[in-house]
Specification:
697 residues; alpha+beta; four-stranded antiparallel beta sheet; extended
Length: 697
């Protein structure tokens, strides 16, 4: 189980690696799809991926498996909503990858053999994931025998078997994709011509002056774009105008917040407990755990670590005195001085940890007593720690934990060290097992205070909740049309909020807490519909659906202005090119041209073909290219850039020595990275995917 514990500790790596790759699906018993089911197949279909139907049962089984893995890996018994949503997204991407890539693998006969898998886990070049999981944390050396032992024993441990199944499938899917992308990448080649072209481009470094005439220098009235030109551009570039289905809403929130009456009620309830909290007969820690919204903190604090208000109290109070009530962080509080002690800031100790054996509960305790006898009779602590301690991290150092501050160790261990005597050897039990502790050294003691704070957070009452809900209900009843809704907001000086371009799988709308139901409503409603009253966290929400955008191509009416502006800018550039070309052909210098067209000359230096931008011009690849390839001391032909039209005069050009072999390596690496990065996305983009997740989540 030690190996499994290490696997759990490194599970964050596995979680990161698993994104983008598939897991084995557990196919649940199909209770809802039998011949007598009242549900139709289409109603239970969460997706259709490249013609393959995926049922909600299949998908949820995948999500459940990932949730179980994450719980096991993190040690948490429950996952929050954000994590569950993230796992659903990962499961979705993995299922798409499985299906679309699986077809490619099958067509090409790509597979991973058992021999390859064995080589990846125990061969001469072990996969990095396996190497990381089975590296001895003390020595930093990969232990192949540990892998073999784990494989032999996993059949007796369901958790270990689950882990290995996951890792094995991870390795297989990664190797399959690597084979496929490698095969695909072999179809690309960096030619000598490409290398020469890149080398020539990089071999020149130039200084130059340039003149820019910006598009804005021409008034819109000087160019015109016809309706036929707009329609032609739209039809020729229709793929630019694809859109996803989306919805726009306007909504109003009614916040449920504590009233002054609620605040006073909370204060009174706290005051009612003050006498009991002050009693010398109570178990203070237990009283706080039962009655307080703030957990009991057993640490002893220096006066300077406390707020000034509490510092003044503890330095003059007696043990058992209670201060308050006082208000802090939306909470009414009472603070009791529990204890005053002289303790150090830090302690150095070493220990021997003996874990409890459920089959023989007394075994660890009996061994601890034996070791205590040996130590009391002069046995070497370091040797016993190396031989018996089950804390591998410290055992190799003779049990030495070094110096640690108060609160760094579990409470029983902490108390034994900070309240024990220097040089003392004590036996303590914690949730980890039995510790034999040698208190090696203690820092200089100082006065510290142990406090218990009884806190009651101010929350709204059921009456306040009902009052706000009634207000929202009344508003919805009186303002059930968009016109009335907007008029009431204006008259009552309320704040209207907007949810624009909502996608069907979105889970966020503004700052609303978990508003998924609002998004689902928006995709079922008609334009102008009012929502029911939703409750999200401490808010009631009323919304109107103001716009519906369906999936497909944007209509010409929606993009007409954008196209018109683009075509106008192109015509302005043409006009500017003609103006500058005419000036250049007249034989004028760059300075004379600038004066004639009311322009300003700017300078740039040390520009190469790889320069990202030019000072004074911004990101202008056309300007960079024009400068690099223009002759020295000649006014160039005009060239259109992103923001205007340019003339260039190179003032200096230097030859820069380049390494063609290095350029070739860079081009090959860049090409390989592009293949690896873009291949999967391109395959997914070309797949036909029907996404029905919003019907279920």
């Amino acid at each position: 189980m030690a190996t499994l514990e290490r696997i759990r500790s490194k599970g964050g790596v596995l979680v990161a690696v698993m994104i983008g790759f598939a897991l084995l699906a557990f196919i649940l018993t199909d209770l809802l799809s039998s011949g007598n089911s009242i549900f139709q197949r289409s109603q239970m279909e969460i997706a259709e991926i490249d013609g393959e139907s995926v049922s909600i049962q299949e998908f949820q089984a995948r999500v459940s498996e990932m949730e179980e893995y994450t719980r096991l890996n993190s040690g948490e018994s429950a996952l929050d909503e954000e994590m569950i949503n993230r796992l659903r997204d990962q499961a979705w991407n993995q299922m798409i990858n499985e299906i679309v890539l699986g077809k490619k693998y099958e067509e090409l006969g790509i597979e991973v053999t058992s021999a390859e898998l064995v080589e990846m886990v125990t061969g001469s070049e072990v996969h990095p994931m396996i190497r990381q999981l089975f590296t001895n944390p003390q020595t930093g050396v990969f232990d192949k025998q540990q892998v073999i032992n784990f494989l032999r024993s996993k059949q007796y441990d369901a958790t270990a078997n689950f882990y290995w199944t996951f890792v094995e499938n991870q390795l297989i899917n990664e190797r399959l994709f690597r084979k496929y992308s490698s095969l695909f990448g072999k179809g690309f080649y960096v030619t000598n011509q490409w290398i020469e072209s890149e080398a020539n481009a990089r071999s020149n470094k130039v200084d130059f002056n340039f003149l820019v005439k910006r598009i804005t220098s021409i008034d819109d009235k000087e160019v015109s774009v016809s309706e036929s030109e707009i329609k032609a551009y739209y039809n020729e570039n229709i793929d630019e105008f694809r859109q996803e289905a989306s919805r726009d809403i306007e909504y109003l929130t009614f916040d449920v917040e504590p009233t002054e009456e609620d605040r006073e009620s909370t204060r009174e309830r706290l005051l009612e407990m003050k006498d009991d909290f002050s009693s010398p007969d109570i178990d203070v820690a237990q009283f706080v755990r039962i009655n307080s919204d703030i957990p009991f903190n057993p640490r002893y604090m220096k006066p300077e670590a406390l707020d000034p208000e509490i510092r003044d109290f503890v330095t003059t109070a007696s043990e058992g005195d209670v201060y308050g009530p006082y208000f802090e962080d939306e909470t009414f509080k009472l603070t009791r001085l529990v204890d005053v002690a002289q303790i150090p800031d830090s302690v150095r100790a070493r220990h021997i940890l003996l874990r409890n054996n459920p089959q023989n509960p007394d075994e660890a305790d009996q061994l601890a007593d034996s070791l205590m006898n040996l130590l009391n009779n002069g046995a070497d602590f370091e040797e016993l720690a190396r031989q018996y301690s089950e804390d591998q991290g410290s055992a190799i150092n003779g049990g030495d934990l070094g110096w640690f501050r108060q609160g760094q160790m579990v409470q029983p261990f902490n108390d034994a060290c900070f309240f024990g005597k220097e040089g003392e050897i004590v036996k303590v039990e914690s949730q980890f097992g039995i510790h034999i502790i040698h208190i090696m050294a203690k820092g200089i003691p100082s006065t510290k205070y142990q406090l218990a704070t009884l806190g009651r957070e101010v929350t709204y009452s059921s009456k306040t909740y009902q009052d706000v809900y009634s207000e929202a209900t009344r508003f919805a009843a009186l303002n059930n049309t968009p016109e009335k809704f907007n008029k009431a907001i204006e008259e009552q000086n309320l704040t209207k909020k907007y949810g624009r371009n909502l996608q069907k799988n979105d889970r966020n709308v503004g700052n609303l807490e978990s508003p998924r139901e609002l998004v689902k409503w928006a995709f079922k409603a008609e334009k102008g519909d009012m929502s029911p009253i939703f409750e999200f966290g401490d808010q009631f929400v009323i919304a109107f659906l103001t716009n519906i955008t369906e999936e497909g191509n944007m209509p010409l009416s929606a993009v007409r202005n954008r196209i018109e502006r683009q075509l106008m800018n192109e015509k302005k550039k043409e006009k500017l090119i003609e103006q500058l070309k005419e000036q250049k052909e007249s034989g004028k210098s760059l300075e004379e041209i600038a004066e004639a067209v009311d322009g300003e000359i700017q300078s740039a230096s040390d520009i190469t073909f790889n320069s990202f931008q030019v000072t004074g011009a911004g990101v202008e690849p056309a300007l960079v290219s024009l400068a690099v390839y223009s002759p020295v001391n000649q006014v160039s032909e005009p060239a259109a850039g992103n923001n205007g039209v340019y003339l260039v005069q190179v003032t200096n050009k230097e030859e820069v020595e380049v390494d063609k072999e290095q350029i070739k390596r860079q081009l090959v690496n860049s090409l390989n990275q592009r293949v690896s990065y873009q291949l999967l996305q391109t395959i997914r983009d070309n797949a036909e995917i029907v996404d029905n997740r919003s019907n279920f989540y």
